[in-house]
Amino acid sequence: MDCLFCKIIAGEIPCDKVYEDEKVFAFRDINPQAPVHVLLVPKKHMRNILECDGETAAALVRAVGAVAKREGLEADGFRVISNCGRNGCQSVEHLHVHLLGGAQLSEKMS
Ligand code: AMP
Residue 52 belongs to a domain with what CATH number? Predict the structure, then answer.
């Protein structure tokens, strides 16, 4: 399968990895939109949130918490986004969650 994030998880494309567990892999976004911008992806390929099962969703949420604490975002907060499909401007068709923080973020989300 020709999937960018599957290749990153497999180590075929380099990344700045920040976290890994049995189900989740996380690395810094190549084009950061905030001082901390981490992408968390399930190791198992799934296109978007519509294909996500409960176990994977729980693993992603746990990993978001772990990475947020590791990155020092606990006190001041952060934002979690998952773009889905064309209207959501999803550009990589492997489910991913953006974790953004490290500064005051915009009130606008659209
Ligand atoms: P989305 O637009 O929600 O699909 O997010 C895809 C994200 O992947 C974008 O924020 C890109 O900057 C990021 N991205 C694309 N290629 C890479 C890469 N090789 N390493 C890290 N992040 C990447």
Answer: 3.30.428.10
Cα end-to-end distance, the chain, whole Å: 31
- Does the model's pTM come out above 0.90? yes
45 belongs to the catalytic site = no
Report the Cα 86 to chain-centroid distance in Å. Answer: 18
If you measure from the C-alpha of residue 87 to the centroid of ligand 1, how many angstroms do you get, rounded to a whole number? 17
Number of domains present in the structure of the chain: 1
Residue 2 has pLDDT above 80, yes or no: yes
pLDDT tens readout for residues 66-110? 999 999 999 999 999 999 999 999 999 999 999 999 999 999 988
Locate the DSSP E strands across the chain: 17-20, 24-28, 36-42, 78-81, 97-101
> Which residue's alpha carbon is at the smallest distance from atom 16 of ligand 1?
30
Does 109 map to a domain? no
Mean pLDDT for the chain? 97
Domain of 50 in residue numbering reads as 4-101
